[in-house]
Amino acid sequence: MTDEADAATGRSIEAAADTALAAYGSLRPGQPNHWVVNRIPGTWLPGKVRGWAFELTFGPAEGYDGFVPDPDGGEVEVDVLIGPDVAKRWREIDDFEGPGYERRTIEVTLDDGATIEASIYVALTEAE
């Protein structure tokens, strides 16, 4: 668990994979499926993860963004929702994401250089 300072309010935030969601696609603020997570109280912080982002062209999530982690991959921009209530909503988010994705833990480098563990939805591809 890492303790991060919230620049907007000066309060500290505790983050762990079960209380932090790294969003790279339609769940991000301003994106079409943000409604799925916008009721969860917390703080959004910008960051980056290592891997590959792409549009899915087959399978149950066809037409949506996909992500596959890779420590040697490029930097993929994410927005991270951090809050204690995130852990209470995993089932709802898992159900929304459906069979084309799997929730996994990933290291996120926040824009201030700090790193935290967060959950991210990985696209299930033939390579997985």
Give the % helix: under 10%
**Residue-averaged pLDDT, rounded?**
87
The CATH superfamily turns out to be Gamma-glutamyl cyclotransferase-like
Overall, the morphology is globular
Q: Calculate Rg over CA atoms.
A: 14 Å
Largest sheet: 5 strands, mixed, barrel
Q: What fold name stands as the CATH topology?
A: Hypothetical upf0131 protein ytfp
Short description:
The protein is 6% helix and 45% strand. It has one helix at 90-97, and strands spanning 2-5, 12-15, 20-23, 43-55, 65-69, 74-82, 101-110, 115-123. A 5-stranded mixed beta barrel has the order 3-6-4-7-8.
Structure description:
- It contains one helix and eight strands.
- With 128 residues, the chain is mainly beta.
- 29% of the residues are buried.
- The model is unreliable at 1-13 (pLDDT under 50).
- The protein has one domain (2-123): Hypothetical upf0131 protein ytfp.
- The strands form two sheets. The protein has a five-stranded mixed β-barrel. Strands 1-2 form a two-stranded antiparallel sheet.
Helices and strands in order:
Blueprint: E1 2-5, E2 12-15, E3 20-23, E4 43-55, E5 65-69, E6 74-82, H1 90-97, E7 101-110, E8 115-123
Considering the chains and any ligands shown, give keywords for the structure.
single chain, 128 residues, mainly beta, Hypothetical upf0131 protein ytfp, 5-stranded mixed barrel, two-stranded antiparallel ribbon, 1 helix, 8 strands, 6% helix, globular
